[in-house]
Amino acid sequence: MRLFPIGRQEDDVPTFEAVLKQYERPVYWHIRRMVVSHEDAQDVMQETFIRVYQGLGKVQKKEALKVWVYRIATNECIRFLGRKRERAMAELCEEDVLINRLMASEHVDWEDVEGVRLQKAILRLSQQERTVFNLRYYDDMSYEEISQVTGGNVSTLKVAYHHAKEKIKQELLK
């Protein structure tokens, strides 16, 4: 029995439950890497899947579903971080705010020293570099998919990813 009979009756449009089951975990980690805090990630996740629920019937092709879900999640992260930035203290830059959230989080494996260093290095990237790096490295998306998620040009995204990798390397070599 379907709890949320969304979309057309065609078999190519998945139910909300199917989308949630398939994307809940990877989208949570995508969001978490962008907003850092577990609690904030849960809030953004809820907003993301509310929007997914509301628009699922409009998805034209099953193949476009992944990109569409990630685009919603990415936009929700950007919206959330924009609101946070507005409320952040003027003397702290965004990277300091994000790193402070990472350091205050009880959901960090402090035993994994290299993992924490990597996360700090990622948080020092610009928002665009961080988004591209996370989608490419963690979510294994092609540049074409990232372009569809972010609306960016493929060539620009390749450059952003390359710069992100170089900045992370330099940060980890310190």
Keywords summarizing the entry:
globular; 8 helices; mainly alpha; 174 residues
Q: Could you explain how this protein is built, in words?
A:
The chain starts with 15 loop residues before the first helix and ends with a helix. It has 174 residues and is mostly helical. Mean pLDDT is 82; it is low at 1-9. It is globular, with a radius of gyration of 17 Å. The chain has 8 helices and no strands. It has helices at 16-35, 38-55, 65-87, 94-104, 113-123, 127-138, 143-150, 154-173.
Summarize it.
This protein has 174 residues and is mostly helical. The protein is 71% helix and 0% strand. It has 8 helices and no strands.
How are the elements arranged and paired?
Blueprint: H1 16-35, H2 38-55, H3 65-87, H4 94-104, H5 113-123, H6 127-138, H7 143-150, H8 154-173
Globular, elongated, flat, extended or rod-shaped: what is the shape? Answer: globular
State the share of residues found in helices, binned by percent. over 70%
Helix-strand sequence: HHHHHHHH
- Structure summary, number of beta strands: 0
Unreliable parts? 1-9
Q: Largest sheet, if any?
A: none
Name the average pLDDT: 82
- State the end-to-end CA separation: 56 Å
Number of helices: 8
Q: What Rg, in angstroms, do the CA atoms define? A: 17 Å
Taken as a percent bin, the fraction of beta residues is under 5%
Which structural class best describes the helix and strand composition?
A: mainly alpha
Quaternary form: single chain
